[in-house]
Amino acid sequence: MKKNILVILTTYNQSNVTRKCLDTMKLISDHHDILVIDDKSTDDTVALCKEYNVKCITKEVGKGLTDSWNVGYQYFKDNNYDYFVIANNDILIPDNALTEMKKVLQKWPGSLVVPLSTKLGAGHNEMQIIDKWYGNQDEYNEPTNYQIVQNQILDLVKKESESNNLYKFDPVRMKHFNGFFFMMSKDICKYEREDGNLFDPSFPNIKNEDEFNWCNLIPNNDYPFLCRTAFVFHWKGVSFTKAGIKYSNNLKEHLEQREKETIEMFHSYWIKFI
């Protein structure tokens, strides 16, 4: 039976971290396939994928995180999945988190949904910090508790459902989100760029998830949702940390070259009228 959720893991070395992620994904019952997009790692990431019998696309040239997202998006379209997740490799995914996020997209199919995480894992986005919604508990920050935290949330949902207080768990809109883990449905394809990509290739790495918010890829009424009943543990600072500096430098060189070409084209056009 074909699975309808594609989980796209982006990797660049740190195979030991990817192994931890894949170990958690073996335990979840959510109906999913895994695709690893490897940005030309120099460690044993590709061998690890073979060990776990996971599909891996290895790029001949490392082009950064945005390129990995677009490669994964093309695979999603070509293989006709209904939903896809784009995720860092430095995460632990509990059972039922994907199902809870999918419920949001079933109600708002043209949007994007993200989970809760720890204070460290949520990074710059306070809305995604689990403490904001469920109180400050030390156990949230312990990676071995990642499934316990998800179970506790769903236990609360079940308890509150008996008193019709489920509004406490309704998804909420956000203008910004942390891009370590987010889910979309095939309805997102309507926002595809003319070049067939979903993400602007000129942004090689950091904070490119914000183009959903700042570059009007998604209209205001389709701002991303926070799923308050899904939790994903995020180590943060592992994926693409060193590579991020490299790709940020590449972006600067790319923009400088594009500016140079624009000036040359401008001159070549106007020289005809001089």
Portion in helices = 25-40%
Q: Name the CATH homologous superfamily.
A: Spore Coat Polysaccharide Biosynthesis Protein SpsA, Chain A
Radius of gyration using CA atoms only: 20 Å
Q: Order of strands side by side in the largest beta sheet?
A: 3-2-1-4-8-6-9-7
Q: pLDDT average, as an integer? A: 83
- Our measurement of the CA-to-CA distance between the termini, rounded to an integer number of angstroms, reads 68 Å
Helix-strand sequence: EHEHEHEEHEHHHEEHEEH
Number of helices: 9
CATH top-level class: Alpha Beta
Poorly predicted runs are 240-252
SSE layout and pairing:
Blueprint: E1 5-11, H1 15-25, E2 32-38, H2 45-51, E3 55-58, H3 65-78, E4 83-88, E5 91-92, H4 97-107, E6 112-116, H5 119-122, H6 130-134, H7 146-161, E7 172-173, E8 181-185, H8 211-214, E9 225-231, E10 233-234, H9 241-270
Parallel strand pairs: 1-2, 1-4, 2-3, 6-9
Antiparallel strand pairs: 4-8, 5-10, 6-8, 7-9
In short:
With 274 residues, the protein is an alpha/beta fold. The protein has 9 helices and 10 strands.
Can you put this structure into words, describing what you see?
The chain is of the alpha/beta class and 274 residues long. The chain has one domain (5-243): Spore Coat Polysaccharide Biosynthesis Protein SpsA, Chain A, CATH 3.90.550.10. The protein has helices at residues 15-25, 45-51, 65-78, 97-107, 119-122, 130-134, 146-161, 211-214, 241-270, and strands at 5-11, 32-38, 55-58, 83-88, 91-92, 112-116, 172-173, 181-185, 225-231, 233-234. An eight-stranded mixed β-sheet has the order 3-2-1-4-8-6-9-7, with helices on both faces. The chain has a two-stranded antiparallel sheet with strand order 5-10. The longest helix has 30 residues, at 241-270. It is globular. The model is unreliable at 240-252 (pLDDT under 50).
